[in-house]
Amino acid sequence: MPTRKLYWQDPYRTTFTARVVQRLDGQRPGVILNRTLFYATGGGQPHDTGLLGGVRVLDVTGDDDGDIIHWLAAPLPEDADEVSGEIDWARRYDHMQQHSGQHLLSAAFQDILYRPTIGFHLSANTVTIDLPGPPPDDEAVNRVLDFVQAAIARALPITAREIPLAEALRLPLRKPPSVDGPVRVVEIQGLDWSACGGTHVRNTSEIEHLVITRMERRGDQTRVYFLAGARAYDDHLQRLRVTRELGALLTTGVDDLPAAIGRLQEQVQQSQKGLRQAQEQLIRAEAKRLIAEAPHSAGVDIVLHILEAENAKEMSRLLQALIAPPNVVALLGWTGGGRPRWAAGRSSNVPLDMLESLAEVKEAFGVQGGGSVDMIQGVAADEETLHKVLHLLQAFAFDLPDIEQ
Ligand SMILES: [Zn+2]
After folding, report:
1. For residue 324, what is the domain's CATH number?
2. Same domain, yes or no, for 103 and 231?
3. What is the distance in A from the centroid of ligand 1 to the CA of 57?
4. Alpha helix locations (H) across 170-256?
């Protein structure tokens, strides 16, 4: 005997008693009852939670025989042949609002835009339906929402009844039924007929609100994210809070927010551009100062400089500024935190093979590094090694033949 689904008779009932038919003693304890109010996951609607004989119901699933299995946090007491159960009503009613909202929204997309619903998903955070084709434009979506809102305002009764398959096939069902036997048809009076095993509110006014929060293109389909009932209301309050905070931050009204943010973005871009230019000027001035102070040997200025607090990225920009003019060899170290880094380079007219120098420092100090004939860089194990690397590279520069001859 399949489990009797009390939630079909009265989806508003929250407590019941039932006889234990079978206990399942696997890794997680399960129990089958002769009847239940606990909805088993199916048809896009998640299972109910609640208490059974005082034990928490974690999951509810249906099997092929029509049995409903309640998965429990702990086994039921040994002698419990009869148990009382209570479902989590807030969770169930939320599912009813979302599911009825889905039937109404699917009917609207079908009737207004001729787009059938090919998927429905309901979870704790999101409710979606999938439609064929690309996302409809705003005007079309507004027509769909107007249809939905009008149906909510009319408080159309939502009823469910089990009828023979032949009779069901004469109804304008949105999708052909997938069962051979009797079909449970959920009707939004005069508006929608769906084969459905879910739980629904009494009439469309209990859907309360329905909003589409976003649409997402997925291949040749569109996923429509929507919220009904308390979820739509909570979402509305949250959006009000966010826009109010944004309005206060930008000292503007809600309608002007997009323009205000556009202006802000423009200002940020201008500021960033100005900042970049100023930084480049600073780096060029610093390079000029370092070259002026550097020892001069055989026609070459040999700069050796350790950067401390500055950003490590500044090192390569400073190096490039240093070797842009002719007659410079630049040796830079950075000790701003973590492993010390070094970088070295020379102007294009200076005949110093940096890769050869790199090979020498690698061999002498076992440091890591890489680069090209005019610029090399690497890391050192500690500050002492860093200084040794830079001074060896400096010695190579002092050994250069006079380029002015
Ligand atoms: Zn349904």
Report:
1. 3.10.310.40
2. yes
3. 23
4. 229-249
* Span 136-146, pLDDT tens digits: 999 999 999 99
Task: Return the bridge partners of 131, or none.
Answer: 222
- The span from the CA of 405 to the CA of 293, in Å, is 23
Enter the DSSP assignment of 40. P
**389 phi/psi in degrees, rounded to 5:** -60, -50
Measured in angstroms, how far is the CA atom of residue 137 from the centroid of ligand 1? Answer: 26
**C-alpha span between 158 and 17 (Å, rounded):** 27
Question: 193 C-alpha vs ligand 1 centroid, how far in Å?
Answer: 10
Q: Report the separation in Å between the CA atom of 146 and the middle of ligand 1, taken as the mean of its atom positions.
A: 21
313 and 350: one domain?
A: yes
E strands within 141-280? 158-163, 183-188, 192-195, 210-218, 221-228
Q: Is residue 221 within 8 Å of 109, Cβ to Cβ?
A: no
Could you read off the pLDDT of 75-107 as tens digits, one per residue? 998 888 999 999 999 999 999 999 999 999 999
Q: Whole-prediction pTM value? A: 0.75
Alpha-carbon torsion (141, 143, 145, 151), positive or negative = negative
Interval between CA 185 and ligand 1 midpoint (Å)? 9
Distances (CA, A) of 250 to 158, 236, 240, 269, 313: 46, 21, 15, 17, 34
Asked if 315 and 221 sit in the same domain, the reply is no
* Residue 365 and residue 311 in one domain: yes
Return the H-helix or E-strand segment holding 320: helix 312-323
Q: Which of 87, 109, 142 is the last residue of a domain?
A: 87
> Would you tell me the crossing angle of helices 383-398 and 354-365 to the nearest 10 degrees?
140
> What total number of domains does the chain contain?
3
DSSP for 88-104, please give it.
-HHHHHHHHHHHHHHHH
